[in-house]
Every structure is written in C-alpha cells, then in structure tokens.
Design brief:
The complex is a heterodimer of chains A (101) and B (472). Chain A is α+β, with helices and mostly antiparallel strands and 101 residues long. Chain A has 2 helices and 6 strands, in the order E-E-H-E-E-E-E-H. Chain A has one domain: Roll (SH3 type barrels). In chain A, 16% of the residues lie in helices and 36% in strands. The longest helix of chain A is centred in the C-terminal third of the chain and has 12 residues. Chain B contains 18 helices and 13 strands. In chain B, strand 3, helix 7 and strand 4 form a beta-alpha-beta unit. Classes of the chains: A alpha+beta (101), B alpha/beta (472).
Chain lengths: 101, 472
C-alpha cells in the first residue's frame, strides 16, 4: 500500500484524447492527449501508485484520477553553474570604472 | 440529466458560462458590427481610479518605489553619441505582495468577486498573475483555482512555471496543471461551470483598471521628485494589459506627452501551441508569441471583449532577443544590486538601448520588476535551455535563432532593439476584425472605432479597407 486516506497526493488525468482535441492544433500537439495533474487529500481508504482514486483538493474540490505521487514536493532549484554568465558582472563593472571616477 | 462535457459541447456553452462567471453582459456595449463602446465598458463595469487606489491600499498593493539606475545610465552613456543617454529609472513592482505588478490586477478582480458574493475565483494563467490572484484571494477569504499550461507531452515542465505553481500553493490555491494546448480554455470553462466561481480574467475592465494606478503613480512620483513627467515609459508586452492599464493611468494623470513603448522578447519561429516547441523557449511570458497575437486580435482572450487593447495606446513597439534580457538581468544585479526577473527585465533591456537615442536630460522609465526565485532565475532557465539542446553563445544577439540558441551580447554595444512595424500590426488587426465579424460594409461608427483602436488615422484605416476591398 502506497497511500492511505488523508494522505497528500498527486493525481493525473487524460482530459482529452488526441481524437477529442481541438482540430486547430499544430501536428505534434494533435498527436498527443491533453493531460492534467492536480493535488489533494486521498479519499480512498488505501491505494497504490497507478490506481484510480478520488481526492479532495486543498480548496475542497473532489477530483478523480490516477495516483502518481504521495507527498509530492517541488524539485525545481537554482540550476547548475552557467559559466557563460560569469563575464557579465566583471565586464560592466570595469566599463563604468574606466571613466576614472 | 448529465451535462454533455465533450469539448464541442462545453465550448458552445462559453458565453453562457462566462456571463455567470464574470457578471458582465458584454452585449450592452456591442454595436452589432466591428465597433463596441470601449470607454463605456471601462466606465460602467470598472472602478474609478480613486476607488481602485482605496481597494489596493486595503491589501497592500501599489505605491512601489522608484529607483534611479545611475550605474546603468552611466553604462548606457558609454555607448551613446555625445550628449545622449537618458536617465534610466525603474519602478520596483516586485515590492507588491505577490512579487509583481499583477497584484494590481488581482486586487480589483478579487475585490469585485467578493463584492458580488462569489465563493471563489478561477484564473487561467501560467504567469505571475496566478500567484497574484492566490495572494489577493487569501486576503479576501476567497477560494482560488489556478489553471496552468505547464508541461510538454513528456511531462517536462518549464522551471519558471513550476515555481509559479509553488507560489500559488503557498497561498492556499489549488493548481491544475496541463500539457500544451489552447484547450486549457476548455478545462477552465469546465472548472467555472463546476464551481460557480468568478472568472478572475486578466482581461476584464476591473483587471485592466487595476493597472491604471501604476501609470498614475509613475506620473505623480516623477512630478514630485523631478518636477515633471517622464519622456518615455517602457512596458514589457504580452497580453497587452500591462501596457493598456499603464497608458490609461498616465493619461488620467494628464501625462499626455509621455511616450509609451512596448517591448517583447523575440521568439520568432516558435509556435505557442506546439508540444515540441514548448520547452525550446527560455521565456514563458513577455514574448512575441503573446505580444503579436494579442495586439492583432485582443478579443482572443478569455472574455468576450478584452479590456486590454495595446494598439490603442502604443507609440512604438520593439523586440529584444532572449540573450540580451538574460544579460541585462545579470547587469541589474551586478551594477544596481537588484536581483529581479528575468522575464520582467524585457523592458529593461529595451530601455538600455532606447536611452542611448535620447538626450541626457531626458527620462526613461522601466515600469516593472518581478520577483526572482528558484526556477525563475537566469541560472535554472539557462540550465533548462541547455538540457533541451539550446546552445548558449556569447556573440552578436542579432544572430540568435529562438529555439536553437541564446546569444548573450559580447559587450553592451551589442544590445539592440528591433522595431515592430506597427502599421503592419494595425493592418493585421483590421483584417482580423473583418474576418471575425464578417461585416459586409464598415459603418461610420466602425471606422471611428478602428481609428481609435489602432491609434492611427482615418486615412490609414480607409487605405487598409480599400486594400481588402471592403466598402465603407
């Protein structure tokens, strides 16, 4: 069992299958479904990743979908070092210093 | 009986759902042809400037500081002809509660939703507006749902948008995240219908009126500190609301000689609805992918008539490349001690070049900044670009190919702007008006409207109508 009632989880849904989508789309987008993710408290007694479950979102909306994550968290960060940026500060500082002030 | 939830069925209920969710009967302002009464719509459904100031004061919005960027001005003058190089100022809109000017739009929307008795608000945005609505909704005791276009079909999300989702959740909102596609609007309608919440659209009269205080404050702050209005205000342009609201505020302050310049990041060649192009761009807002379509057809927005009509107010429109905005973001931090943006620094990159065309005693204002955070920062955005096969080059930004490379200027002399031919944009707008309304003949009222809505002349509009073979 991956999650029990009341756990904070993330679910996934297919909103529109490729054939149900708008017809006015670029070719690459037309070929794939419109997908959706949202989060909430699990309403099922217990569930495993991949099960179809029901949740109550933080504002109280009930949504059904496939359980994909338990205690989801953010992994975005400040990225890797981008050495290409390192010249900028030194360059502009030296440019305004050249004025002899 | 279960309601038909198919794409076509929900889309066909659009106007009925919207009427309930915005509380405005837009038909009241329609003429039946191309024209609609824009000023009447702004007057009768919006708020006065004084009312908005009061509403915004209640939730700590506005009255943001203005800084003179002395080091940046000095740098610009090094590359300007003798006697040129206007003083560059910035309005630090990142000081608003949710970290961007969007708090101004959200403040009026949430106030209005509360006043009309809605239980919650829904907004469709991948930008700073989501956090702004979530923050204002928290203060007003409203529930909030933010619908974002966030991932490609591989489930890979733009770090900038993921950070904005985090911020919305921090304020207690539910964030519904979607893959690429304009059917975001379908999901949005389904949510409005299901919840009965208010549509906190970016494009309602109250949303746009919320930005008027920004333009008004600029004029008042400059009169107080410099004894006059600025010569030029540069606005990062996407959906057109920032520019429209700011320009209207300047006009309301009587700053009629101040020129309003729009600036967008040039994303030429990248299709906004394309799944594979989605993660090949390094800006998710402030770019031409929104700027041009919304200027040439503002009524593509999520309300029947958009209150954001940038062509009505724009004196000039310029583009900058992605690399120059990243470069200027670094310069702002290193020379002025302000870590902001990056997307909001589009107008800063443009102002750096425009200042060099202006006299030394003139004033140019960058009218916004936005907060910086994890994901929403030059390093993660450039890291993400590299992971998506985009090459980072130090060289001549004029050679940048969006989706293939990002070219950081070799030195500040390489920072330039590319003009958008406004007459071409105006012509496209008029063509879209004709195609969307299918009128057989343009009435005098339509003609007058088209002149106003394109800030052009009767002669220009007639010339375009002749070209399309439409009678007037």
């Amino acid at each position: 069992m991956d999650a029990k009632r009341g756990d904070w989880v993330r679910i996934h849904n297919i909103v529109l299958k490729p054939e149900e989508r708008s017809t006015n789309l670029p070719e690459d987008t037309q070929k794939v479904p419109l997908e959706m993710w949202t989060k909430g408290f699990l309403l099922d007694e217990e569930a495993n990743i991949g099960d179809i479950v029901e949740i109550e979102s933080y504002i109280g909306r009930r949504v059904k979908g496939k359980l994909v994550e338990v205690n989801p968290y953010y992994t975005h960060d400040f990225g890797r070092c981008v050495p290409e940026l390192l010249y900028i500060g030194k360059q502009v500082r030296s440019l305004i210093e050249e004025e002899g002030e | 009986m279960a309601r038909d939830m198919s794409y076509e069925a929900v889309m066909s209920r659009n106007s009925e759902i919207m009427k309930k969710a915005v509380g405005i009967d837009y038909d009241r302002f329609e003429s039946g042809g191309i024209a609609f009464d824009y000023e009447k719509m702004m007057r009768e459904t919006g708020y006065t400037l004084e009312e908005i100031e009061k509403i915004q004061r209640e939730t700590g919005v506005g009255n943001t500081p203005i800084y003179e960027l002395r080091n940046l001005t000095k740098l610009a003058r090094k590359f300007a002809p003798p006697g040129k190089g206007a003083r560059i100022f910035i309005k630090d809109e990142a000081c608003n509660p949710s970290g961007s000017f969007k708090a101004r739009r959200a403040a009026t929307s949430c106030y209005h939703a509360k006043k009309l008795g809605y239980e919650g608000v829904v907004t469709a945005t991948s930008g700073n507006y989501g956090a702004a609505v979530a923050s204002q909704a928290a203060m007003r005791g409203l529930k909030c749902i933010v619908v974002q276009e966030c991932y490609d079909s591989k489930g890979i999300g733009q770090p900038e948008i993921i950070e904005k989702a985090r911020k919305c959740e921090a304020y207690g909102a539910e964030v519904v995240q979607l893959t690429v596609g304009p059917e975001l609007f379908y999901t949005f309608l389904v949510l409005l219908e299901e919840t009965g919440y208010f549509n906190a659209s970016l494009y309602t009269p109250f949303g746009i009126a919320g930005v008027e205080t920004l333009g008004y404050e600029i004029s008042m702050q400059f009169r107080e500190r410099e004894g006059r209005d600025p010569d030029v205000v540069v606005v990062t342009n996407a959906g057109g609301g920032n520019l429209t609201g700011t320009a209207r505020g300047l006009i309301k302050a009587g700053a009629v000689d101040t020129k309003v310049v729009g600036a967008s990041v040039n994303l030429r060649g990248l299709h906004m609805a394309s799944d594979t192009h989605f993660n090949r761009k390094s800006f998710t807002t402030g770019h031409t992918g929104f700027g041009i379509p919304f200027a040439t057809w503002p009524d593509r927005s999520d309300v029947p008539r958009s209150a954001a009509r940038p062509l009505r107010y724009m004196d000039r429109y310029v583009m900058v490349n992605q690399g120059s905005v990243f470069y200027m973001t670094e310069v702002l931090a290193q020379l002025e001690g302000l870590e902001r943006g990056p997307a909001g620094n589009t107008s800063l990159a443009a102002a750096f070049k425009l200042a060099q065309e202006m006299d030394e005693d003139q004033i140019i204002v960058v009218q916004e900044t936005e907060y910086t955070g994890a994901g929403k920062h030059i390093q993660p955005q450039l890291t993400f670009a590299k992971e998506n096969g985009i090459e980072i080059i130090i060289g001549d930004p004029a050679e940048e190919v969006p989706g293939e490379n990002i070219i950081l200027p070799k030195d500040p002399a390489y920072i330039s702007v590319e003009e958008v031919d406004l007459n071409r944009v105006r012509r496209s707008y008029i063509r879209n008006c004709l195609e969307n309304t299918r009128v057989e003949r343009v009435t005098d009222e339509d003609l007058k409207f088209l002149v106003e809505d394109t800030k052009s002349s009767e002669e220009f509009v007639k010339e375009v109508l002749d070209e399309f073979g439409v009678e007037y």
